[in-house]
Prior knowledge:
Chains A, B: It comes from Paracidovorax avenae (strain ATCC 19860 / DSM 7227 / CCUG 15838 / JCM 20985 / LMG 2117 / NCPPB 1011) (Acidovorax avenae). The structure is a homodimer. Chain A is an alpha+beta fold.
Amino acid sequence: xxxxxxxxxxxxxxxxxxxxxxxxxxxxxxxxxxxxxxxxxxxxxxxxxxxxxxxxxxxxxxxxxxxxxxxxxxxxxxxxxxxxxxxxxxxxxxxxxxxxxxxxxxxxxxxxxxxxxxxxxxxxxxxxxxxxxxxxxxxxxxxxxxxxxxxxxxxxxxxxxxxxxxxxxxxxxxxxxxxxxxxxxxxxxxxxxxxxxxxxxxxxxxxxxxxxxxxxxxxxxxxxxxxxxxxxxxxxxxxxxxxxxxxxxxxxxxx
Amino acid sequence: xxxxxxxxxxxxxxxxxxxxxxxxxxxxxxxxxxxxxxxxxxxxxxxxxxxxxxxxxxxxxxxxxxxxxxxxxxxxxxxxxxxxxxxxxxxxxxxxxxxxxxxxxxxxxxxxxxxxxxxxxxxxxxxxxxxxxxxxxxxxxxxxxxxxxxxxxxxxxxxxxxxxxxxxxxxxxxxxxxxxxxxxxxxxxxxxxxxxxxxxxxxxxxxxxxxxxxxxxxxxxxxxxxxxxxxxxxxxxxxxxxxxxxxxxxxxxxx
Lengths: 255, 255
């Protein structure tokens, strides 16, 4: 199984603290050593890093731990290969363009016998079930809407699409187009919303703590979604099975 | 004006030497300081780095100068903004997926009044004339062929498409799908093919030389395409205006 990390914030925020703990699971505190990847939105632009080395000793992961890239939407993934070999084209997150926006997708789990025909313009480059499912979601979104719909409309469509894929196996995923972060759980996914008053937190995977109040303003709001809690002294809310949540400006939305 | 760098080789090769000289033009020996980018194919997979900082002092460019990423097809670009602001979504190279392959494109020059209607699935995310032209090329390729055609067929189609865009301005570009490197010149582009027996070369933009014979085997072949010669002691062949060349396995092809 792989591990997912997502971040959504109302102001550009760096994920070096969360990524430092998360990256330890890529070969040190976890055996997810078959590559990793991370994507950062900056406005509509995207920085996308993938590597088939272990996150714990990849020079590119080291750069990301040290160089604070500020973003309002981040998706990261460390991989334990179940389908598809350990090559760059099989590393998550995957990226496609639709309606003049980049879409980023990462998946944790295994889908059995989900290989719907892809009759539109989205085709997988690698060999994973995950990228196939992502291309199908992109195809169905492009058929369902003529242009970028509202976050609320997208959420309704994505809930329908996720419900059609989920019966084929384990389908925990993160998706973002830079406007929102969508997260769907089959099994393991939890989240936290950090807001004023900010406090201190300690990583579970590394001997490191941070005092968020020293790095934030009272207006900052940040939501973090992850496979397993990253910190030992905060309360993380687990997703229910089959739940799709959407985060905008660092807050889980009611719709 | 921007600067382009392309590399095509018959064996995975690192571009740290060429990139070191090239990156100096991003703020030190040249005024191309409005961001930069580089894309490396590894098999069908892609590493894509873009940054709106100057290449000469970007931490990500520093990583690429130090960490030898080996690739058979590389496209790099340093930007001097003429159209579109200095934001991440306007940094070249641009990437799209077509027929289950990634396509990478970078452009040097200015296109006037070339905004054809994009009626297919490819739309620009940023505001540059370059990305608009790339999306149009992708659209026309997808209409001209049902699946990935041969490199020879693609070259014929691309020659027709380039000839339709070139009259609108300056259209020096590099394009790759991981199988070949296409290069089109309106004004400034030159190339070199390095093969056995390899010799030494000195960079124009930095006090650095390399003895290629120490890093190669007799079977290696590497072609480098660039806006202006990178080395002072090798013979670079200039493109003729309107010429589109294709490089496969480190050699310029006759078709």
